Amino acid sequence: MEILHAAEFETRFGMMRCVSSARGLAYVQLPRASGRGLDGWRRRHAPGAELREAWKPNQRAVRQITEYLEGKRDGFDLPLDLRATAFQLRVYEALANVAYGEVRTYTEIARAIEQPSAVRAVGTANGANPVSLVIPCHRIVAAGGKLGGYAGGLRMKKKLLAMEHAQPAEGDLL
Question: What's the pTM value of the predicted model, to 2 decimals?
């Protein structure tokens, strides 16, 4: 039986939770998260896994996320256990390449993975990102700069982009 380790911690945005496996960080639960949440992720990606509260396996991830949210870090150096489709993994790789302080559109991500007609699928993959913040899905906006959905809510997305002083790659998106 697989064992997952979870650690809950307080941030300036509210309570968060990291879940890791033996391979790395697998899930980050944002404060006031919308969507299926940890239970939905576990049903789909870790059925039958035992979830244990454990600080030590998540200590590095918690520290890095906290530093990021305090404006002391602009990237992450963590092993990840991404349980995703091949398409989602390509999207996550493209998201990870969006630099701190920049934004991209769903269309730009679709072009980056060489599937320009897959804009909606990119949006769906973006919304399924299990490690928000670490893979910066908050840096993705709709055409014209409109803020799309975010697991932690649009208020959190706006605050994250403001904290990063996010600048569009092309044109005036924000």
Answer: 0.91
CA distances from 93 to 29, 89, 100, 145 (A): 20, 6, 15, 22
Q: HSE of 131 in the Cβ direction (CA atoms, 13 Å)? A: 29
- Catalytic (active site) residue 18: no
pLDDT in tens, 101-157: 999 999 999 999 999 999 999 999 999 999 999 999 999 998 888 887 888 888 899
Q: Which of 4, 46, 103, 137 is catalytic?
A: 137
**Selection from 129, 84, 85, 83 nearest residue 106 by Cα:** 129
CA atoms of 160 and 10, how far apart (whole Å): 16
Question: For the segment 36-79, what is each residue's pLDDT rounded down to a tens digit?
Answer: 789 999 999 999 999 999 989 999 999 999 999 999 999 999 99
Instruction: Enter the tokens of residue 114.
Output: 């060489």
β-pairing, 3-11 with 14-20? antiparallel
